[in-house]
Design brief:
heterodimer, A: 174 residues, mainly alpha, 6 helices, 79% helix, 0% strand, flat, B: 209 residues, Rna Polymerase Sigma Factor, Chain: A, Arc Repressor Mutant, subunit A, 2 domains
Chain lengths: 174, 209
Amino acid sequence: MSERRIDDLYRAWRTAERRDEERSADEAFAALFAGLPLEAPPAGFSGRVLALARARAGFVPAASRARLAAALLALMSLGTLTLASLVVSSLPRLDFGVGVRAFARLLTFTWEWIASGMAFWDRMAGWGAVVAHLVDVPAVAASLLAGALAAALAFVLLRRLLAQHGNLTYAEPY
Amino acid sequence: MGTTDPRTPDAELVEQALAGSERAYAELLRRFERPVYTLVLRMVRDRTLAEDLSQEAFLKAFDKLPSFDPERKLSSWLFKIAHNTAIDHLRRRGVETSSLDEPLGDEPEGRAREIEDAAAETPEAAAERSDLSRALTRAVERLRPEYRQVVLLRYQAGLEYAEIAETTGYPLGTVKTYIHRARKELAGHLSEAGWAPPGGAETSRRETP
């Protein structure tokens, strides 16, 4: 911006301000302000920002993404082909009887596993029934309720104590 | 890494950046590093802090780039992010963005830098312009924080009144009032510094001692 230009803008702004011409003052000041020199950040600023953005995986070049996708696709194709060829080559050597026995063993194992789970839940249900009978007795129910209330009160008290000492600081042990 | 055409529109650059072009990011930085850094520096008045905050602002902007609306002006969007980053930092640190009497930029590297057509100016003209620039910069720094904030958003970031209201949280009427009063105050500061209004008893130029 030349000397004449900045001088003109300054005059225009001050004149508009004196005359209370809001719009003109605003425009002239905006033009004057636009002529203020900009500060340059320290050398290497943009390089550092780019490096940080790259480290944060903010952007991956399109070519790199394409290469990565192609490599993954190739790897998956290779894996599928290898697996398929292995299955095909081992098919003639498979014994039907061995397959049936393995399947039967798998079924037995699964059944045993389900049965043990059922037994566990049966035992739990038995205990539940016992507790239900006990709670049915008024004295037991009252004592359980009292216990629950006492526990709740203890928790409230503990929380207040912790809040009162909330400014505790952590110190390194060494 | 090659270069991106400096004439490429901002919106197109954003598209290229979103497609993963590092050149586009580099060009965005080249275009906006000075305006963003200057805005933050004038807000926080500390070069090291301004560098950190500008860096943070650019990283945030890059993260948010997919949400940028190409119908909007990229510079305004970036300035808003930079402004909010600086304000958040100042609030976190409880630092008051008060005006200070000691102006920023008296150190050699802080001296006013020449702009585009500086090469065409005579040394005297450049010095004169630099004087007024410095006086105006100092006057802005002397403004109270709220005034400085709206002045920078209006005249440096080029935001509309409504955008300033949205960014700062001030009501629209308050923004207009602050800007009006801030300009009056700046005129006063400049008069005190010897830059008298035209048509007055003094000349519009400060006399060289």
